[in-house]
Design brief:
Elements: H1 14-30, E1 41-46, H2 52-63, E2 67-72, H3 84-93, E3 98-103, H4 108-115, E4 120-125, H5 131-145, E5 151-155, H6 162-173, E6 177-181, H7 189-195, E7 200-202, E8 213-216, H8 228-239, E9 251-253, H9 266-271, H10 277-296
Parallel strand pairs: 1-2, 1-3, 3-4, 5-6, 5-8, 6-7, 8-9
Length: about 300
């Protein structure tokens, strides 16, 4: 059987997504360590900064009784000038049971999966995708709304957000109504229509009264070096989420980290009663347990 992979939401059917989410929720309810029949070695190669994803993958592996080997750029030979391909050949020669990778380059997890027999999970590749974030977001939504098909708004830097791209693919595949709220400089409308031609687009926050869930996104300032300051200033003025935008009380999500008072005001971030942001962090561990179980079973 061909090795399983989660390099993109495209790798998963709606049935796969449902099964992974059900298992993650089951893990969350049990809150027990799961002893594996055989020790597995999970290599976590993180070539971009990360807090939530790195730690949750490490905890997920430990909770499943696996060994977690963490490698970041500073601790790898890439920092000494070794090529990416040579680094990958070195790691694969050590026979990991799975590779979790975050990289600044689009599609690198997909390319690794094509060349290797090792199961690969994409922990974020450039501006392309972040499938496990979308899966955990779906788990959080599913816990609250069960099978109800709701209206979900995604607001912010859609163009440069791998989280947005994976979420739009997943939520479309699962039959949710998606509303995109973004300025034109953070949007590639034609790209999104290719994924789902029923997406609704909005240029301001006035539509929030009709949403069940609002997902705010981080402005990817490290990916927009040109005019980054101007874009941040403009976005803050027009799209920073305030209490007056939330009169209908939708559930609030954000993958983190939050640029305070750029995407979400301090007042909302610290006090909004229907925020799911920390629940997303909590679910990250259980979802990544489910993903490791999925690719290794």
């Amino acid at each position: 059987m061909k090795n399983r992979k989660i390099t993109s939401i495209d790798d998963l059917s709606a049935k796969d997504i449902h099964s992974i989410a059900e298992l993650a929720i089951k893990f969350k309810k049990s809150k027990k360590r799961i002893a594996g029949n055989k020790t597995k070695n999970i290599f976590n190669l993180f070539l971009e900064p990360s807090t939530r994803t790195t730690i949750s993958f490490e905890l997920a592996a430990k909770n499943l009784g696996y060994n977690s080997v963490n490698i970041n750029f500073e601790k790898s030979s890439l920092s000494k000038g070794e090529t990416f391909n040579d680094t990958m050949d070195t790691l694969m020669s050590m026979k990991p049971d799975a590779l979790v990778i975050r990289d600044k380059n689009n599609f690198s997890p997909m390319n690794i999966a094509k060349k290797s027999n090792v199961p690969v999970i994409n922990a974020g590749d450039g501006t392309n995708e972040h499938p496990t974030q979308a899966l955990l977001d779906y788990c959080v939504i599913k816990e609250i709304f069960k099978k109800k098909k709701i209206k979900i708004g995604i607001c912010g830097d859609i163009k440069h957000s791998r989280v947005a791209h994976s979420n739009i693919k997943l939520l479309s595949k699962m039959g949710y109504q998606i509303h995109i709220i973004a300025p034109t400089y953070f949007l590639n409308r034609n790209e999104l229509i290719k994924i789902n031609d029923k997406i609704k687009f909005h240029k301001n926050l006035n539509y929030l009264e009709k949403l069940d869930v609002l997902m705010m996104l981080r402005v990817q300032k490290e990916r927009i070096p040109k005019d980054a300051k101007n874009m941040m200033k403009s976005f803050k003025k027009e799209f920073c989420l305030q209490n007056n935008h939330l009169l209908n009380k939708p559930y609030l999500m954000h993958p983190g980290p939050v640029n305070r008072n750029i995407e979400i005001s301090d007042e909302v971030l610290d006090n909004y009663p229907k925020s799911l942001i920390l629940k997303q962090v909590e679910m990250g561990v259980y979802l990544r347990m489910a993903c490791l179980h999925y690719i290794l079973k």
